[in-house]
Amino acid sequence: MTDILEKVSSNRAFEGELIKYKFKSATLGGVNANFNLFLPPGASATNKVPLLTYLAGLTCTEDNGAQKGAFLGPAASQGIAILFPDTSPRGAGVEGEDADWDFGTGAGFYLNATNPKYSAHYNMYSHVTLELPQVIETAGLPIDLKRQSIFGHSMGGHGALTLYLSSSTKQYRSASAFSPISNPTKCPWGEKAFSGYLQGGVEEAKEKYDATELISTSKEPVHILIDYGTADNFYKQGQLLPENFLKAARDSGYDEFQVRVRSQEGYDHSYFFISSFATDHIHFHANFLKA
């Protein structure tokens, strides 16, 4: 499915190692894809560690969460690896993909495109859930793929929640999100993305790519944590809609132990907010990844 995995760089951090890799991605139409992988101290072929995947937001790359999220120290202390994928294919050459900051490059929305214009390259759903784990396994990296969880920020929070809730294989044990786009079929960012990437637009997205729609019909046990800031301008503008997700979860019978949504007074949308609650999220996932 992929060509050779190439190590681009390596940095020691918290007695572990943050490694950047690149490879030619078949899922993304043959373009080079980068990702960062943090391996905690003690990870080895005889001591494979659980994997937490972090999905970044609009305009971000594989570096934002790794460099600014404050995740590495808590992950090292818990013996958890963190995978940081990119947010879209790069250099696909699709006409118009660089025209807007909130669509195209840097804005893959963690879906598989069905619009023929984008479907050869914009398949971040399969890239994250299938291709990257296969690359990691083939490369012999010390990861226990039977223990996976997922989290993310903004567009990546949308991705984390939808990949978790829509996975028929129950790939992830838990999900969390910072300021997620929680009901994207009801907000401008989501409407724009779905109208462009999907042949069926918003209606097609409801079945697989809207966390509020997914939780409203879910009957499976879930483990979800969401934080958002009350001073977040995107929250104020109606892009995030966490209340919609919370109401749908409660209406489906999920209590605060299964779905917890926390409003954080005075925090905005930035990595200052994310880093303030990074340890909470790592410890939340550790409860399930280390079980």
From TrEMBL:
Keyword annotations for this protein? Cytoplasm, Hydrolase, Serine esterase
Q: Does the keyword Cytoplasm apply?
A: yes
Q: Where in the cell is it found?
A: Cytoplasm
Active site at S154 (charge relay system), D232 (charge relay system), H269 (charge relay system)
InterPro entries, per the entry: AB_hydrolase_fold, Esterase-like, S-formylglutathione_hydrol
Task: Give the family this protein belongs to, as stated in its UniProt record.
Answer: Belongs to the esterase D family.
PANTHER family (alphabetical):
S-FORMYLGLUTATHIONE HYDROLASE (PTHR10061:SF0)
Asked if the Swiss-Prot or TrEMBL record annotates the protein with the keyword Cytoplasm, the reply is: yes
Q: Which organism is it from?
A: Dendrothele bispora (strain CBS 962.96)
Provide a GO CC annotation, any one: cytosol
General function of this protein: Serine hydrolase involved in the detoxification of formaldehyde.
Q: What is this protein called?
A: S-formylglutathione hydrolase
Molecular function terms from GO: carboxylic ester hydrolase activity; S-formylglutathione hydrolase activity
**NCBIfam families associated with the record:** fghA_ester_D
Q: Which Gene3D superfamilies match?
A: alpha/beta hydrolase
Enzyme Commission number(s) from the entry? 3.1.2.12
GO terms for biological process, alphabetical: formaldehyde catabolic process
Question: Which reactions are catalysed by this chain?
Answer: S-formylglutathione + H2O = formate + glutathione + H(+)
